[in-house]
Amino acid sequence: MRLFRLAKIVSVGLRFGLDRMILDADSSGRLARLWHVVFFWRTFAEPRGARLRRALESLGPIFVKFGQMLSTRRDLLPPDLADELALLQDRVPPFPTEQALALLEDFYGRPVDAVFNNFERTPVASASVAQVHFAELPDGTEVAVKVLRPGIERVIEHDLALLEVAAAVLEKLWPEGRRLKPREVVAEFSKYLHDELDLMREASNCSQLRRNFTDSKLLIVPEVYWDWCGGKVMVMERMYGVPISQTSALRAQGTDLAALSRAGVEIFFTQVFRDGFFHADMHPGNIFVHGDGRYIALDFGIMGTLDEVDKNYLAQNFLAFFKRDYKRVAMAHIEAGWVPPHTRVDEFESAIRTVCEPIFDRPLKEISFGKTLLRLFQTARRFEMEVQPQLVLLQKTLLNIEGLGRQLDPDLDLWKTAKPFLERWMDERMGWRALVRGVREEAPNWAGTLPQLPRLVHEALAGSTRHKAAQQDRLADMAAVQRRQGRMLAVVGLLAAGLLALEIHRLLG
């Protein structure tokens, strides 16, 4: 089955002429001319961007998601490719409505029109793993009904199997492959892709994020209607807003794009460092803007989590970067085991400074993050830095945030926007506010423990006394054993001396 899927990938690439995009990179042109001779019958009327988009749509959800991520990286792609890939965000071909109705009727056990007052047959959005229809609950509440694509699980399993094979080959054949941990990275993406296929899990993610941002002035999260949800169906509040990619419409409704870009950075850092729970699929198709200027989050299938150790480590690294304390950054990487312990701190510090110093105090429009990432990769290879699979989603989300910031406000200074938030967060974590909060959080536990304190102290002291007596008994037993062993050794020694005397007397006599 994997061979058939691989053959399909190759055939789709050839059918849409993706090989020509690769051959165009050959400056000599000799290989391209030879290739054209072999495939002389092929002609393409569509531009290369449209052909790339259609190829990704044909290959399925994993490839669509790859295209979605690339569409936010306009500094890495020519404009024609970036514009065409942006269509993947909300124009993935829908599956037939009849299949959606059949799935819903099977889940609810009755016709769709008996479940909802109104169910719009035409899908309003179609994504890589599901599509959305608007509907109305019996009490008149307007909702969005998300339905999983039929048979999507099998397609994803096939694609993941190919990725696993590719990762294993990469580790075997490429010297740098093992350090990059490709199999661990594929396993991490596999976990999140499988999570995305469970719409009950997505509904719980949505509910948690909504609770985290209750009464927020920056972010709106729809309410989930649990009585209508299942593993392949999710029903949530219908949201009204303008897609964040439609900047002209945002300006028309009076939205301040510069303030909106700064709010996006604050929302991201709040999710990461305050909650350790962040939206990890923040491409423009999943984000709308309300009329009052607040963000609207949609599609909660991929969420990232960080524990306290990760949050503290990341915050210290970010602050060290913002303060240009490259020695602290180098030491933090060594202490965390991201680079070998034998790494020379001064050399690593110098390499980090060389990569990062040029990007400070400059707007995004003047920074080539493609070149910066390439130089960081070269630095990583030089110092044997290991890829951290648990932070892959965070890295991906940071790229999305940068892409959104570039679209909204090319003059946004990501570093200056994030630095005050991180300094405030670190102060709350480690300053006097952290002490007050810790006392307040632990006070209920103290209230239950204080009445028991005298008894616990008595038991501890009594236990200490019993422990000391037991130790003394063990020491006495050991001393008795040693005395017995000493007496036995003395007897054995006397017997050996007597036998030796008799033997000498016999020899001399």
From TrEMBL:
What is this protein for, i.e. what is its function?
Is probably a protein kinase regulator of UbiI activity which is involved in aerobic coenzyme Q (ubiquinone) biosynthesis.
The record's SUPFAM superfamilies line, in alphabetical order, gives:
Protein kinase-like (PK-like)
Name of the protein this chain belongs to:
Probable protein kinase UbiB
User: What would be the name of the gene that encodes this protein?
Assistant: ubiB
Give UniProt keywords alphabetically. ATP-binding, Cell inner membrane, Cell membrane, Kinase, Membrane, Nucleotide-binding, Transferase, Transmembrane, Transmembrane helix, Ubiquinone, Ubiquinone biosynthesis
* Pathway annotation from the record: Cofactor biosynthesis; ubiquinone biosynthesis [regulation]
Give all residue intervals belonging to the ABC1 atypical kinase-like domain.
Answer: 88-331
Matches recorded under HAMAP family: UbiB
EC class of the enzyme, as a word: transferase
Glycosyltransferase keyword on record: no
Q: Which residues bind ATP?
A: V124, A125, S126, A127, S128, V129, A130, Q131, V132, K146
- Which PANTHER family does the UniProt record give? CHAPERONE-ACTIVITY OF BC1 COMPLEX CABC1 -RELATED, PROTEIN ACTIVITY OF BC1 COMPLEX KINASE 7, CHLOROPLASTIC
Phylogenetic lineage: Bacteria, Pseudomonadati, Pseudomonadota, Betaproteobacteria, Rhodocyclales
Residues of the active site are D281 (proton acceptor)
Provide the E.C. number(s) assigned to this enzyme.
2.7.-.-
